[in-house]
Amino acid sequence: MKKKVAFYTLGCKLNFSETSTIARGFVDEGFERVDFSQQADMYVINTCSVTENADKRFKTVVRQAHKANPDAFVAAIGCYAQLKPEELAAVDGVDLVLGATEKFKITDYVNDLFGRPKTALRMTEIHSCEIKEADFYVGSYAIGDRTRAFLKVQDGCDYKCTYCTIPLARGISRSDTLENVLNNAKEISAKGIKEIVLTGVNIGDYGKGEFGNKKHEHTFLDLVEALDRVEGISRLRISSIEPNLLKNETIDFVAHSKRFVPHFHIPLQSGSDELLKLMRRRYMSNLYTDRVKKIKEVMPNACIGVDVIVGFPGETEEHFLTTYNFLSQLDISYLHVFTYSERDNTPAATMEGVVPKAVRNKRSKMLRGLSVKKRRAFYESQLGSERTVLFEGENKEGYIHGFTENYIKVKAPWDPALVNTVHEIQLREIDADGLVRFDFSSKDVFVQ
């Protein structure tokens, strides 16, 4: 009988793309992939260490695995596994911890595990590396609900933001070759998937080669232009991109592209220039304002999402209000709010001016409230317009959901025939839950 393997991913789209590639490697080795809630012989947890909550969730996920099968092997991979391998190894029930370079060779380690009795393996195996050894690139892509795929184009980061552990967990900035990215995009297209989301740690830095080569073989604009020519993909979406790396040429190209959609997610982190300097960000607030204005100038209906951190060391009430007012006046569509949490081995962890957690939580709640208002205002601004919707594959309380090209979430009564189909609709009204609702009996819906 085939051995069964299950996967659980914590964190970002990049982690999901890598989990999917690793899972395909298991299948190639003869394993059967099953849902994480099912009984399996092996459970693989791809970890994240961006926030304190991601760390805490790991123990819960390990318990879930052993509840499904107390005799199963459990492996931890990913960012947390690279940063704190001993801490993960100390969690009861964990058998294998693999760092940044070893995670893509996991089937070699797992086959060795299965070659020995479980009872003989009470010491957790740790295989980690110095992060400077993570100087090679492994391409990957994730296929989830048949409607969209996360395509990894870049890994690592050369930035030194004072709050961030990602360079310690993933190493230097490096990129896939343009040829490999295009081949992966063609593979995705051949599977009938309608949308590709470009992902990486710092995708605007695309083009840096392996082994610390700082020369850009291609630019991010080269990548975008080449992907736009791949046949069979209805939509291409850019995930998070640094404001200083989002150039006018890229914005103008997206504005006239048939495949790239008018949706940008641009990290801000703070509206205070003083805090941006403490964070060692590579821009000031005026550049961020310029990027938003440029997008809206050429794509008035574009959706713009923003990352922001509250409670960074030294953030006074005045600093916070500067950020709040800056975001309130900016023509953006929604916020991703992160409550600052201290991360070991980062400069920010030892900075003065620690903000009490109760204050951090209060500020986070205020910005999340602002995000609700921004999203509502953006949705209302789009009422009466015609948009295309790509429907996803899940039945949620009798409704099917999808997103327009400019990232408006819509819902319709559940119909399995709608899964992975694109329709042109007219946005008419916002339902009580804040989503645009419509019925296919309406004359405002056009099949594309």
C-alpha geometry: globular
What's the tally of helices? 13
Low-confidence sequence ranges: 443-448
The separation of the N and C termini measures: 45 Å
The CATH class of the largest domain, by name, is Alpha Beta
The main pleated sheet reads as:
6 strands, parallel
Class from helix and strand fractions: alpha/beta
CATH superfamily of the largest domain: tm_1862 like domain
Q: Which bin fits the share of residues in helices?
A: 25-40%
On the 0 to 100 scale, the average pLDDT is 90
Architecture of the largest domain in CATH? Answer: Alpha-Beta Horseshoe
The CATH topology of the largest domain turns out to be pyruvate-formate lyase- activating enzyme
List the helices and strands and how they pair.
Layout: E1 4-9, H1 13-28, E2 32-33, E3 42-47, H2 52-68, E4 73-78, H3 79-83, H4 85-89, E5 96-98, H5 106-114, E6 125-127, E7 141-143, E8 148-152, E9 154-155, H6 166-170, E10 174-175, H7 178-190, E11 195-199, H8 220-227, E12 235-238, H9 248-256, E13 263-269, H10 273-279, H11 285-298, E14 303-310, H12 317-329, E15 334-339, H13 357-382, E16 386-396, E17 399-404, E18 409-413, E19 422-426, E20 436-437, E21 445-447
Parallel strand pairs: 1-2, 1-3, 3-4, 4-5, 5-6, 8-11, 11-12, 13-14, 14-15, 18-20
Antiparallel strand pairs: 7-8, 9-10, 16-17, 16-19, 17-18, 19-21
